[in-house]
Design a protein that fits this description.
The complex is a heterotrimer of chains A (321), B (325) and C (336). With 321 residues, chain A is an all-alpha fold. Chain A has a single domain, classed as MetI-like (MetI-like fold). Chain A is 63% helix and 0% strand. In chain A, helix 4 runs parallel beside helix 7 and helix 4 runs parallel beside helix 12. Chain A starts with 39 loop residues before the first helix and ends in an 11-residue tail after the last helix. The N terminus and C terminus of chain A are likely disordered. The radius of gyration of chain C is 21 Å and the shape is globular. The model of chain C has no long low-confidence stretch (mean pLDDT 87). The chains are: A mainly alpha (321), B mainly alpha (325), C alpha/beta (336). Chains A and B meet through helix 5, helix 6, helix 10 and helix 12 of A and helix 1, helix 6, helix 7, helix 8 and helix 10 of B.
């Protein structure tokens, strides 16, 4: 719809009033608008606050993170030392989550496993977010063959059955956490690239970019200072959602035996260890899985809340081709 | 339109070739056919060299590739190191089993997912929508291997105990019961239900969200308003105008998901011992059975490329704007 | 004048939103006569589109609080059920929209979108319907209509798409055609063609036309009656003569002064200062008060009523008639 006529400062004097009652024709803000303009971050925060589920999820995530960080402080048990005398005990006063087949305290194993799982999840999301943003920004900004090439590569990576490649890759590597983060990051950058490309494409046409260009800014400057801050919303959302996906993928990989290797605990390999004991000690299955579920669910809800707050027009759906 | 299809087909051929080369290089790199011999303390270096020659590993990369390729296209895929059975037959069977599981898991759940997504979008923010959304989030956040384990425990142990029946209602392992002769449909179905459910839950979760988002997008488009302005029945507006457009991104996603059945059911098959491509892969890797790995990877990659092509074509059929791109 | 085709009485449309009640349309009354062209002019937010979307039944009590009456052929459309409204939409009252690219379904052939309208209201065979569609495409000036009917909207140019929309709207020979910003999304050169097309078809199809626009220029050549809307109310209405050669409302003057004309030597454009008011916190008194250069004592106390200042010329402003005529003559007629 066409905009209302803009207010242009002009030297034209308002026409003289007609009666004795002289009212100074100064301009006031039309009634009904708020007293001061709100920054987009304020608006986003207000919108976010309305999402009770997202707030609750944030709280839960903070709790889980704190539990993981202070795992050694919270639980007294050693994560690695077996204690066969107390093997396969159900949840009780001393072992809140029971013990596993070698007598280790499941609660502390879950908390320590959380450290690794969360670490991997967040790292993968961050790295792939950065890389994906980079690729998407280049593709969107420079267009033409750069765009075509980068998007074809993105499509290629999207088509690859990533679990297969991850398994193949990890069988080559030693299974250290660092390597796991590295290979996982290979498969999470694509959605970010697609979305950032779309955002950059739409921002490229806007006037403030023209203005920056007219004032002589270099391309790099324009991308970094003008376009990316406006694309920050979608970047934040997709990175958050990637954390969830990364945690799930790492768990799956470790569950199959190709991810984080024991004795380093991660929620995934805790479940792998539990496989032989599903009937004898179901609590070994319950708790790590539950933690994965709750964490991933909370991250997803958080991401959803962020999306509503930062990008209410649902631009995040990856557009085809 | 035809030109578009032909163009995509032609583009796929070099893609297949390049893919086959890449796969060949990577898999050969990952596996070491002489590994077991090396571990043998009595093996001499000459033995290893002899083995290498026997296997053709001392020839140039190019020669190895072409030799292998000529065998591959003729269906000679070598034999398993463990069982000595021809790989071709094993993979063929595994692929078939995966397809059965994949289709069983996908078909009905797809329809359910699309229906839920559509209704969610049409009744946005209603109780139905909120419940469906919550359910979808749960399905998306649930680690599928954990869910599979839980199903196994529940159906394998607890339910049978409660009901005091001799055998589980739904089996938790394998594709058929041992000792079954011939094709017993009921038995097969009882084995199929649980692994298919694990798949179905994920499919419903993903596609309901996808369809909801797509429908919301579409129903706010101008042409929906035009359709109503013409005086069409609301049902016609929703189906012929709304869903017709909303299903386009769904279809492309579906094509990609179907294409990944060949390599993608690793976890479910692993847990439920389903003799499909996924389990084949895990076993091959764990056993170091390299003659199985290379053809397997080829089949998976080809399947992905072929389905990508099909997806592109489907997209062009559904969306006329693409045909002249 | 014979009985009006459409009579809207005191229509209000209020949308409850999270930020408050948006009073999009606030007490609007007007008529549309047989074979008449009514120009409805206003900025975005004036309520002009909402008014007619409500007339069409595209905005219903499900979306907003509606009161008033919309009398069409003896019936109050607001009291009609879904089925009744659907029978009228497209068949008796048709509407075309601003951007024909997004207003047409991209995956259906153009011909099919026209026949679809036919099939929804009449029993016709597929072949007959197709023939009608092709004929209509020809009548709206699309060359090689038999081929074009099999094409998709993206294969048409902007102007052709709008022509196709018009064909789709006229296929059932409606009594009223509402055109909501029909030329805004088009090139300037094409705009004139489309307006002329609508005017010509109006004769041929014996249709009344409502032209909703923000652009006074669009209305100037073809309208019989004009009404100016601001902040959900009609502030002035009358014949084309009345509005163009003797308008009486400061807002209308502002609109006239803010268009540039090629045939006049204007020093600078004079846009109306300020921006349209919020429709949630509606001010007491005249909605135009904050932006009106002529405001005085009574203006912000009570909303001015729409009063018939001359025969058939209504206006809502407290300024005395003489004053208004004076201002028009000295400030608007010469400087616009």
């Amino acid at each position: 719809m066409p905009d209302a006529p803009e207010e242009i400062p002009s030297a034209v004097q308002p026409l003289p009033v007609l009666t004795d009652v002289a009212v100074e024709p100064e301009l006031r803000a039309p009634p009904g608008t708020s007293a001061r303009a709100r920054s987009p971050w304020e608006i986003a925060w207000l919108r976010f606050k309305r999402h009770k589920v997202a707030i609750a999820s944030l709280v839960i995530l903070v709790i889980i993170t704190l539990l993981a960080i202070f795992a050694s402080v919270i639980s007294r048990y050693n994560v690695h030392t077996p204690d066969l005398a107390h093997a396969l005990e159900g949840p009780n006063g001393k072992h809140w989550f029971g013990t596993d087949n070698t007598g280790r305290d499941v609660f502390s194993r879950v908390l320590h496993g959380g450290r690794i799982s969360l670490l991997v999840g967040v790292s993968v999301a961050l790295w792939s977010g950065i890389f994906g943003t980079f690729v998407g920004a280049l593709a969107g900004f420079y267009g033409r063959w750069v765009d075509q090439l980068l998007m074809r590569i993105t499509d290629l990576f999207l088509a690859i059955p990533f679990l297969v490649v991850l398994i193949l890759a990890s069988s080559l590597l030693s299974g250290s956490v660092f390597e796991i983060i590295l290979i996982l990051s290979l498969f999470f950058w694509m959605p970010a690239a697609r979305i950032i490309r779309g955002t950059v494409l739409s921002l490229k046409e806007k006037e403030f970019v023209e203005a920056a260009r007219a004032s002589g800014a270099s391309n790099a400057r324009i991308i970094v200072l003008h376009i990316l801050p406006n694309a920050l919303g979608p970047i934040i959302v997709i990175t958050t959602l990637n954390v969830a996906a990364a945690i799930l993928t790492e768990s799956a990989l470790s569950f199959l035996g190709f991810g984080v290797q024991p004795p380093t605990p991660s929620w995934g390999n805790l479940l792998q260890a539990a496989r032989g004991f599903t009937l004898l000690a179901p609590w070994m299955v319950w708790f790590p899985g539950l933690f994965i579920l709750i964490t991933v669910l909370a991250v997803n809800f958080l991401g959803d809340g962020l999306r509503d707050a930062l990008d209410p027009h649902q631009e995040l759906r990856a557009r085809e081709q | 339109m035809l030109r578009y299809v032909i163009r995509r087909l032609i583009f796929s051929v070099p893609l297949l070739i390049i893919a086959s080369i890449l796969v060949f290089v990577v898999v050969r790199h990952v596996t070491d056919p002489t590994a077991s011999l090396r571990l043998n303390p009595r093996a001499t270096p000459q033995d290893i060299i002899r083995l290498k020659h026997q296997l053709g590993l001392d020839r140039s990369g190019y020669q190895q590739y072409t030799a292998w390729l000529s065998h591959f296209v003729r269906g000679d895929w070598g034999s398993s190191l463990i069982s000595s059975r021809p790989v071709f037959t094993d993979i063929k069977q595994a692929l078939g089993n995966s397809i059965i599981l994949g289709l069983a898991g996908v078909i009905i759940s797809l329809i359910i997912g699309v229906a839920i997504g559509t209704l969610s979008a049409l009744r946005q923010y209603s109780k139905f929508d909120n419940i469906a959304t919550g359910g979808a989030f749960l399905g998306l956040s649930m680690p599928n291997f954990w869910f599979a384990l839980l199903l196994q425990v529940f159906f394998g142990l607890y339910l049978t105990r409660w009901l005091n029946s001799g055998s589980p209602i739904f089996y938790t392992a394998g594709m058929t019961s041992p000792g079954t002769v011939g094709f017993d449909l009921v038995d097969r179905l009882r084995h199929l239900v649980l692994p298919a459910t694990v798949l179905a839950v994920q499919i419903i979760a993903i596609y309901s969200r996808l369809m909801r988002a797509s429908m919301l997008d579409v129903m706010h488009a101008d042409y929906i308003r035009t359709a109503r302005a013409k005086g069409l029945r609301e049902r016609r507006v929703v189906i012929n105008h709304g869903m017709r457009n909303a299903l386009i991104p769904i279809t492309t996603q579906l094509g990609l998901d179907l294409g990944s059945i060949a390599g993608g059911l690793i976890i479910t098959e692993s847990i439920f011992q389903w003799p499909g491509m996924g389990r084949f892969f895990i076993d091959a890797i764990n056993n170091g059975d390299y003659p199985q790995l290379l053809p397997w990877t080829m089949v998976v990659v080809f399947s992905v490329i072929v389905f990508n092509l099909l997806v592109d074509i489907a997209y062009a059929v559904l969306d006329p704007r693409i045909r002249y791109a | 004048m014979s009985e009006p085709l459409l009579e809207v009485r005191d229509l209000t449309v209020h949308f409850p939103t999270q930020d408050g009640l948006v009073k999009a349309v606030d007490g609007v009354s007007f008529t549309v006569g047989r074979r008449e062209t009514l120009g409805v002019v206003g900025e975005s937010g004036s309520g002009k589109s909402v008014t007619f979307l409500t007339v069409m039944g595209l905005i219903t009590r499900k979306h907003a609080r509606i009161s008033g009456e919309i009398i069409f052929q003896g019936e109050d459309l607001l009291k009609l059920g879904d089925d009744g409204l659907r029978a009228i939409r497209g068949a008796k009252i048709a509407m075309i929209f601003q951007d024909p690219l997004t207003a047409l379904n991209p995956v259906h052939k153009v011909g099919k979108q026209i026949t679809e309208a036919l099939h929804a209201h009449r029993e016709v065979s597929q072949d007959d319907a197709w023939a009608v569609a092709v004929d209509l495409l020809r009548r709206v000036g699309i060359p090689r209509p038999e081929e074009r009917a099999h094409q998709y909207p993206h294969e048409f140019s902007g102007g052709m798409r709008q022509r196709a929309m018009i064909a789709m709207a006229l296929v059932l020979r409606p009594d009223i055609l509402i055109a909501d910003e029909p030329t805004t999304a088009l090139d300037v050169t094409v705009q004139a063609q489309i307006l002329e097309l609508i005017d010509g078809l109006k004769e041929e199809f014996e249709t009344a036309v409502v032209m909703v626009t923000h652009d006074l220029g669009v209305v100037a050549e073809y309208a019989d009656e004009v009404q100016v809307m601001y902040a959900g109310k009609i502030v002035e209405s009358g014949t084309l003569q009345h509005i163009y050669y003797g308008s009486l409302h400061p807002y209308t003057w502002g609109l006239m002064q803010s268009i540039s004309r090629l045939d006049e030597d204007v020093d600078r454009l004079r846009p109306i200062k300020g921006s349209p008011p919020s429709l949630i916190d509606v001010p007491s008194g005249c909605a135009f008060y904050p932006r009106c250069p002529y405001r005085f004592e009574p203006c912000d106390k009570e909303i001015p009523r729409l009063v018939e200042e001359e025969m058939g010329h209504l206006d809502a402003c407290y300024l005395p008639l003489e004053e208004k005529k004076r201002v028009f003559a000295s400030e608007v007629a010469t400087k616009a």
